[in-house]
Design goal:
By secondary structure, the protein is of the alpha/beta class. It has a single domain, classed as Glutaredoxin, CATH 3.40.30. 47% of the residues lie in helices and 20% in strands. It contains six helices and five strands. Helix 2 packs parallel to helix 4 and helix 3 crosses helix 6.
Length: 137
Amino acid sequence: MYPLEIVNPCREELTSRGFRSLETAQEVEEVLQHKNKTILMVVNSVCGCAARGARPGVIKSLNNEKKPELLTTVFAGVDTEAVAKARQHFLPYPPSSPSIALFKNGQLVHFIERYQIEGTPDDVLAEHLRQVYNEYC
């Protein structure tokens, strides 16, 4: 587990912008029971590609007419149960952090793995997500 003095600012970067932090397996299951909503789930991390790409890209992506109805996040290396439960819903994709999942009507419709985030400018990631939102939201 990472020290909270490192984790909290990373978590707050998303929660201060409307993301709900899911910290238990039960919270993940409850959110994913909203079958008639679009749900964005960000697997957050303390790594550099989360700081430089994932979090800023996701935040910028929300500057769009269409966007997910529920914004959620789990924290890899911290919210162990929640991340494990979320990853069950990400199959067939392997564990990846950071990563970004979009669910619609209870189904995973888009998934962005770490290798797609690493080295990708946040503006490029944001534009990619906007296109995904325009298709599914």
